[in-house]
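Encode chain A's predicted structure.
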Amino acid sequence: MWDRVSLKATGKANFKANYWPFVGVSLLLGLVTGAFSLDLDTANITYRVENLNIESVEQFYYTVEPFLSLLAPYALLTTIGGIALSLLVANPLEVGANRFFLEATTFHTGDVGRIGMGFSVNYGNVVLTQFLKNLFIALWSLLFLVPGIVRSFGYFAVPYILAENPNLDHDRVLKLSREITMGYKGELFVLELSFFGWYLLNCLTLGILGIFYVNPYRHGARAEAYRFLRAKALETGITNPMELPGMGTL
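Encoded structure for chain A:
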């Protein structure tokens, strides 16, 4: 039976038993996934119109147009580069990090070297599967916000399944994630929502609390959520040990 409090408690215990490795892997994952996200607001490219002494909209256009022309190729290259690096680096790193989070428990010291697994074991399949996951979530989000959120929780297990078996065909990984999250998307949503208070406290500490506590705690809880879903899937025959062979296979 799903017990959010118990899952979070176990995840927290696993995190505390592997404190500094958890902090380091969480920080690296956050830095890499954040660095390759294009956000023009955080680029600090601002243009103060009041300092231009422009008397009309037409004058304003002709004043900034040369600057926009210069920025356009840079913006395009930044966007393409960010997408490529996210696809080729951040997504495989997420798989390797989740392998670490799954292996690091109160009974087993996690190996930080596992974060490279997404690059060293069937890299092509990992990249393709993660790309398709993100693409399908984006396409569902075009319909409306809610379908995109629902689909994102339907694909919650994708990087964990790849962390366990990177050789599993991409179609099967996506389908298996949808199957094992069936009936649990609401619970996964509430699990994420339960960290909202921590996020507010993290803002008050300018991100320090997130680095040393909130983010690794959340990763530990999410790993436990996958562990629960995996056990249920094996129990009900949705999958089998050939597809999900456990953590001692790589």
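The CA atoms of residues 123 and 191 lie 30 Å apart.
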